[in-house]
Design brief:
By secondary structure, the protein is mostly beta strands. 2% of the residues lie in helices and 66% in strands. It has a 17-stranded parallel beta sheet that branches.
């Protein structure tokens, strides 16, 4: 095992040199702030061992480049990353079997710009994350061209879009909380065979100005139909629209959509074009327009109007 100590001369504070020269794959960070001025590559076969007193900070000149790139066959039991108003972390390689395992990952202070920066970008196949915690950013977690991704517990707070799926397959998020996002809590496009369970809500006391356009947005930017998706959603005080659906078939949603405080949801369910064979059940309470548009499927919900 190689013990990394802070090296102010190194562009990666000594971490890259330790990874590249290590023989057994075990890298342990000493406590401290590691300022990363050149993209850090956590190479294949590495186990990076850290704790809550070791923080990696993005000091790259290019704000759009992920400051940490994690290659395949990597294990990270615990990691905290400060994006420093820039981009965050990239996990995996597109179209590759990555076999990456993450215990706890916290990413905070990702930047906003005309092109929203990503706290976490996930690509490729076979990535497992036990606990993911994201605070502030353009896009919290972006799943792109990936498959067989499993996340057990996930929290995203005050991003532009909390969770974004594009061209993905067999994604499972078992328990998520998306809090006080600006545009969409969860956005799904060109995605199939996936399962999502969680809450999209707005903390009206802490972030009264953050009212999402959509708690859940499915199919608006889709190149091909979204299919075989199951969702269990709680949507509370999220903003303008609860769930907006288009370009979708063979989908099952069990939902609770309610207005509890001042961040009013105006429309519970909005059905767009190219919808086939969907089933929605649950409760819609205190929403002015419970649902609108034409559904090609079935709604089995308890509705209590304003």
């Amino acid at each position: 095992m190689t013990q990394v100590k802070l090296n102010a001369v190194s562009l990666t504070s000594g971490i890259q040199e330790a990874i590249d020269s290590n023989n057994d794959g075990f890298i342990k960070l000493s406590p401290g702030e590691y300022h990363i001025r050149k993209q850090l590559i956590i190479r294949s076969g590495t186990m990076l061992i850290s704790n809550n007193k070791s923080i990696l900070v993005n000091d790259l000149e290019d704000p759009s480049m992920p400051f940490i790139r994690v290659e395949e066959y990597t294990d990270i039991p615990y990691l905290i990353a400060n994006s420093n108003n820039k981009s965050g972390i990239m996990l995996g390689k597109a179209w590759k079997n990555n076999n990456i395992n993450i215990g706890y990952l916290k990413i905070y202070n990702t930047g906003f710009s005309d092109l929203p920066m990503k706290a976490l970008l996930i690509e490729g196949y076979n990535i497992n994350i036990n606990n993911l915690d994201i605070y502030r950013g353009g896009i919290g977690a972006s799943f792109e061209n990936c498959s067989d991704i499993r996340i057990n517990d996930m929290q995203v707070v005050t991003c532009f879009t909390g969770i974004r799926m594009y061209n993905s397959n067999n994604i499972s998020i078992n328990n998520f909380s998306v809090d006080s996002c600006h545009y969409a809590g969860i956005q799904i496009d060109s995605t199939k065979n996936s399962y999502f369970k969680g809450t999209v809500w707005n903390n009206c006391d802490e972030y009264p100005e953050n009212r999402a356009e959509y708690a859940c947005l499915i199919g608006k930017y889709t190149g091909e139909s979204n299919r075989a998706i199951e969702m269990n959603l709680r949507i509370v005080d999220s903003g303008k629209t609860g769930i907006d659906i288009s370009n979708t078939s063979d989908i099952k949603i069990n939902c609770i959509i309610i207005n509890d405080r001042s961040c009013n949801i105006q429309s519970g369910l909005n059905f767009g074009s190219k919808i086939e064979d969907i089933y929605i059940s649950g409760i819609i309470n205190g929403v002015k327009i419970p649902y609108e548009g034409k559904i090609n499927g079935k709604i089995d919900a308890i509705i209590r109007r304003v």
